[in-house]
Amino acid sequence: MTRPPRRARAVDVAAHAGVSVATVSFVVNGKAEGRVSPATRLRVLDAIAALGYVTDASARALATGRRRQVALLAHDMTNPFTAQVAAGAAAGIAEATEGTGHLLLLLGSDETGPDVEPVGAATVDGVLINYPGTLPAGRPDLPVVHLDDPAAGGHQVSMDVEVGARELARHLAGLGHRRVLYLGTPRPWSTFAQRRDAFAAELAAVAPGAVVLDDRCDIDLAAGVQLAGEHAQRWLADGVTAVVAATDLQAIGVLAGLAAAGVQVPGRLSVAAFDDIPFAAVSAPPLTTVALPARELGRRGAVLLAGVIAGDRTEPGDPVVLPARLVVRDSTGPAC
Amino acid sequence: MTRPPRRARAVDVAAHAGVSVATVSFVVNGKAEGRVSPATRLRVLDAIAALGYVTDASARALATGRRRQVALLAHDMTNPFTAQVAAGAAAGIAEATEGTGHLLLLLGSDETGPDVEPVGAATVDGVLINYPGTLPAGRPDLPVVHLDDPAAGGHQVSMDVEVGARELARHLAGLGHRRVLYLGTPRPWSTFAQRRDAFAAELAAVAPGAVVLDDRCDIDLAAGVQLAGEHAQRWLADGVTAVVAATDLQAIGVLAGLAAAGVQVPGRLSVAAFDDIPFAAVSAPPLTTVALPARELGRRGAVLLAGVIAGDRTEPGDPVVLPARLVVRDSTGPAC
Q: What pLDDT, in 10s, does the model give residues B198-211?
């Protein structure tokens, strides 16, 4: 790439147009009205064009090659829900920047969460956070949008998991289930607490005396397989007739573990979950689940973040809450 | 990394060689022809080598910490194989840069492939390409590593899909299968051609007279479900006893479609594929598949790219080929 020996600055524009730097500043910042005559304003604009002076902050950063990108901090890209969030966020960034922006990916491990350190040094304009955590010190100015973490505060896009959880509770209560195992996760994420609490509250409301037992495992196919293999007989001995998992990944693992243990679904146990990843439709049996719009979560988050970066929104407004709905398939049936 | 107190600059090279800075510039920018005598050009190149002057724009940016990121061009992050490649690439970049580098994500749609335009403007040091395509014009200098695209040439990391395909052919031949439907993809990707051709060649070698029929569908659960739903009866009428899909995603869809159509697997039809994504182990029945190391593909690609960027490797060496192996599960059985 060829490059001019020196990039034009406001002082060059001022000299070229025969005005003060303050006048240039008024013009480029849209404050010429009442301060700069139309003729002078035209002269400044001509000078800007002649010298190739870049005025817009984002365009300036792009021109100097410093930014025009946001980071996505996420836990695990091999989780299909997260992958959909990332795909949506990449689409949202492209949409908001007319194809000139891109998504930077920061991933964590099971133990540590994403490595947020790079954000301190990285040349990003903002951050999408899809795990429970905060930015490292030193960048309090960096625009942030939290995804699916309603307790995070600040700018956020979340999903109405409570509406979905209550719908699922009514569905299972209507099938006669009164003893439900709720399979949570070890991750201290507000969305997971919200799912469980709304489910338990609604079940208690529509089926007084119903009991929710709690267990937990990693958000992982293998963890679900292992848990079901080890605990299925105890669940049945405890009178449990339905298992609700916090995520499809756990539930699909549980289905495989129950199949291996010879436990019929939904004959002996009903199984349901949250997310509706594409695999939920082809599990055996196909999974009843609360559909959460992962891709739209990422897309809307990216568009909101672009607005925050552009200065369109400085104070957090009402959080964006995307709808959730129950999808009933074959993994839930009458309590035995 | 230790660093000399001051990095050599063009002016140092000029002084060392006894020429002007303009002459150095002509040489390093490939414009010496007709301007600089061969003897002078050699003297400049000697000075460059002696002073460790870094001429490559990418390496210079990396060393001065202005970029420190690479792009991954991929088709679809919601494909679990691609997501694993991305997770591996992020880990590889972190490894190669001691945690200071990051991965930039560029995704394509079904129709268009990744939007490669941003790479022209983006501040990346190099690109990992996990789809069949080339970079946009204007960046011929950008280091590139191709992943899983053996026909791409240049720096690349691939997997021994041929060994896996032949192992699968022998497995099915040993079970008595002589009429196999091979389910390819519409994507013109050399890895897919290699899988199909190696499978067909080995089947013909070990089971003379065996027939491979061809069909294709998108790499997508829903496409597999639909294809199996529409074609299963025709496959059976044609005497097909096994279906081999180019990817697990297609095969898991086919399994769901066959279940919905009441076709027993492996009783009436055996089903096998390539990839071994985590869902292959929990499909119904669990899927026989050629395990391909997606995560390691991304990781090794990123480490190789870092080496190319650092200038450790300028000419492509032997391609890195990672091992593949057949994982036999319950979806394949004796031909009926």
A: 999 999 999 999 99
